[in-house]
Amino acid sequence: MQLRRHWCKIAFHDYICAEARGSSKKLTEYLLSRHNLNAPPDGLLDLHYEMELVHILGIDELKQTMTVLVYVDEKWTDPSLSWDPALFGNISKTWIPLSKIWIASWTYGKEKIRLHAHTEHSLEHYTDNEEWRLLKVSVVEDEYEHEGINVSELRYDVSVKRRPLFYMVTLTFPSYVMCAISVVGLFARFSTTGERELVGYSGTGEGDPGKATGEMRAIRKCIFKDNTY
């Protein structure tokens, strides 16, 4: 039986992908009697891993970190969850609770679990980021040593480029407009009532003011009146 697990970074749901028609009680009891929740399949397990980038949530340039939303698809074959459909009413697929199934873990060495990356990266569900433009997504199959055990790993490289018009629209152009209005206001004739108006603006970063995310909130226009006679 081929198992598939789906999950994403923000909100994830784990399940065994299957479909059944008719009664499957007998089949479920048969499979669970053969399957050991705490034991991996015998021999080397080939795990096929696919990651789909959905959205770039943000980049912290000071901490050199990127936060992304992704969909992950893991596939592997467990011989203990196989059966002859002819013996169970021609049922070819069935549902089994995830809590009853052994799930692959990174704690196993490469002699037990070997990761295989999906070379084609789908961007079907990807949505653009306002500040960063996605250039490419690549993956490299590698291994590393963890407490004396060689572990198979996949390393994803996400290349992005800052959009040149981002700060032009959110900072430079509004600043130019406000400065122009301020200069004009200095030479404008005051009304007979002596009322004066000054126009200014302020912009703050998202979250920590010192965080160099480059994400500016909406320009706030503040009008100050000085009723001087």
From TrEMBL:
One term under GO cellular component: membrane
Keyword Transport: no
InterPro entries named among the record's database cross-references: Neur_chan_lig-bd, Neur_chan_lig-bd_sf, Neur_channel
Originating species: Ancylostoma ceylanicum
Domain Neurotransmitter-gated ion-channel ligand-binding: 25-103
Family annotation (CDD domains): LGIC_ECD_cation
Domain of life where this protein originates: Eukaryota
GO terms assigned for molecular function: extracellular ligand-gated monoatomic ion channel activity; transmembrane signaling receptor activity
Pfam families per UniProt: Neur_chan_LBD
Protein name, as recorded: Neurotransmitter-gated ion-channel ligand-binding domain-containing protein
